[in-house]
Amino acid sequence: TTTTTTTTTKTTTTTADCGIKNIDCQIGNGAAYTGEVNKTKSGIQCQAWNVVTPHGHGFGRLGDHNQCRNPDGEPGVWCYTTDKNKRWDLCDVRQCGDCDKVE
Hints:
The chain is largely without helices or strands. The protein has a two-stranded antiparallel ribbon. A hairpin with a 7-residue loop joins β1 and β2. The radius of gyration is 19 Å and the shape is elongated. The protein starts with 14 loop residues before the first helix and ends in a 13-residue tail after the last strand.
């Protein structure tokens, strides 16, 4: 009879191990995302958060910029679009890896 024992070791890399910080990527649903992407997945320019045209909304507190954010728990970062026919859309921001570099 032969007995085989397998041991699995899980390795977790932290930003301290890499010495770098995640940027222009989102963790989970992107609730903490503060990157600079300002176009939707379909390539439409984002409407500034402090502007209510062409789409009215209540997220002016997010500031004088048009970068994708997730203030309300959507599946990922998003923005209102500058296209009057498309109110909002998700943005194409990748998930962060363990060792994303500050650019």
